[in-house]
Task: inverse folding
């Protein structure tokens, strides 16, 4: 590595904690550290990681290998939690969809750990330690999830009332953009189309661009999202999931009561029609028919009264 390349490499690396510090200060002043706790923890962890790894790398400490991979493992875990946090913020008005997303994220994390464990055990390369292989596999899985989150927001933002100027969208956009670049670099490096130095420089430039995206969203004011009452399509999704989760039993009395109320309301709303005046013959017939029951007393009741008078 020449002296100019070394200076450029260090300048790009030192720019990371500078931009991250500005992002952390902006988030703290605007109160965003309460709303996005894991993202704020991720930024602070990156600053502390630089404070530990950079001096070890600068002075060629033998512990730099373990320190760098340990910080990478922390970044992978926090990066996964940040995407989950952005997902929960997007689905904040829809509780059923949010609960379903939380379950899916838990399963995705479990599958990611299983894949990382299987890859680390089945790897036969002698130049890579198994636990390093596991961290690399988990990191690539998280990058794929981050890309998927950005594609999801780009496709369904207007259905969910999410503006592209909201902070959750900016966080996902930064992670997704950097994940696309990093996955492309890994593919090029695996195909031996790029050297380690070129890969490192492009990766640092891409991460600095991601930090600039986050800084712009941290300094900008997040607009109010569209009211959930006007979003008909996610409301149907919400109601459908709620019906699946809490179905009505087959012998439920609620439909019967609703039908009775509907019939009662329909009767009260429609005025009764006036019946035509009965003819004389019909009047006498009705009179005879009303006299026969004798006030609701039967034959036995009449006999009891006659007996009592005696």
Result:
């Amino acid at each position: 590595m020449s002296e100019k390349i070394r200076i450029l490499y260090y300048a790009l690396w030192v720019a990371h904690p500078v931009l991250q510090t500005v992002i952390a200060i902006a988030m703290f002043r605007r109160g965003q550290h309460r709303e996005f706790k894991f993202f704020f923890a991720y930024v602070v962890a990156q600053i502390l990681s630089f404070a530990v790894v950079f001096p070890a790398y600068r002075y060629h400490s033998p512990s730099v290998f373990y320190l760098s991979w340990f910080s990478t493992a922390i970044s992978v875990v926090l990066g996964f939690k940040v995407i989950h946090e952005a997902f929960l913020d997007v689905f904040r008005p829809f509780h059923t969809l949010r609960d379903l997303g939380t379950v899916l994220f838990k399963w995705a994390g479990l599958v990611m750990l299983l894949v990382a464990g299987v890859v680390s055990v089945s790897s036969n390369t002698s130049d890579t330690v198994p636990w390093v292989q596991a961290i690399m596999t988990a990191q690539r899985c998280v990058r794929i999830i981050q890309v998927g989150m950005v594609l999801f927001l780009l496709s369904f933002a207007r259905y969910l009332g999410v503006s592209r100027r909201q902070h959750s969208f900016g966080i996902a956009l930064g992670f997704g953009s950097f994940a696309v670049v990093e996955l492309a670099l890994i593919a090029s490096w695996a195909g031996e189309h790029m050297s380690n130095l070129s890969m490192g420089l492009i990766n640092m430039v891409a991460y600095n661009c991601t930090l600039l995206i986050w800084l712009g969203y941290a300094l900008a004011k997040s607009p109010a999202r569209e009211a959930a009452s006007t979003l008909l399509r996610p409301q149907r999704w919400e109601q459908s999931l709620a019906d699946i989760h809490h179905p009505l039993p087959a012998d439920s009395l609620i439909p019967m009561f609703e039908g009775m109320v509907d019939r009662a309301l329909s009767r009260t709303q429609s005025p009764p029609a006036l019946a035509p005046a009965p003819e004389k013959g019909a009047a006498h017939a009705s009179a005879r028919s009303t006299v026969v029951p004798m006030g609701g007393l039967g034959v036995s009741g009449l006999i009891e009264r006659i007996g009592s008078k005696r």
About this structure: The chain has one domain: 3-221. Confidence is low (pLDDT under 50) at residues 278-310. The first helix runs from residue 3 to 29. The radius of gyration is 36 Å.
